[in-house]
């Protein structure tokens, strides 16, 4: 009987400190701009952090800034199943940053 309780508790203990593998398969689509002259783009980016809009906004902002882009909006956060339907619209900004 003790063994039946020990196995689930051991499994829980082993996975408690492990980061979620979801981040590797997490993407976001966004809109960004540059000023002088005004340029806009729609892009798709792979996220390395949490797969949520709030953390994605911070990550995308930090990755776009060195290229002179300002994030306007994170449209959605999604898994690999949403990549193909967004590829054509993102053009050269598909997984660029």
Task: Write the SSE topology.
Layout: H1 2-16, E1 27-34, E2 39-46, H2 53-64, E3 70-78, H3 83-90
Antiparallel strand pairs: 1-2, 1-3
Signal peptide: 1-23
Keywords: Signal
Protein described:
The relative contact order is 0.21. Mean pLDDT is 85; it is low at 12-22. The protein has helices at 2-16, 53-64, 83-90; strands at 27-34, 39-46, 70-78. It has a three-stranded antiparallel beta sheet, sandwiched between helices. It has one domain (21-93). By secondary structure, the chain is α+β, with helices and mostly antiparallel strands. The radius of gyration is 18 Å and the shape is globular.
Distance between the termini: 53 Å
Helix content: 25-40%
Give the averaged pLDDT, no decimals: 85
Q: What strand line-up does the widest sheet have?
A: 2-1-3
Strand content: 25-35%
Secondary-structure content class:
alpha+beta
| Major beta sheet summary | 3 strands, antiparallel
**Secondary structure tally: strands:** 3
Question: How many domains comprise the coordinates?
Answer: 1
Radius of gyration: 18 Å
Summed up, the helix count is 3
**Structural shape:** globular
Entry keywords:
globular, 3-stranded antiparallel β-sheet, 3 helices, 3 strands, 97 residues, alpha+beta, signal
Question: TL;DR of this structure?
Answer:
By secondary structure, the protein is α+β, with helices and mostly antiparallel strands. The chain has one domain. The chain has helices spanning 2-16, 53-64, 83-90; strands spanning 27-34, 39-46, 70-78.
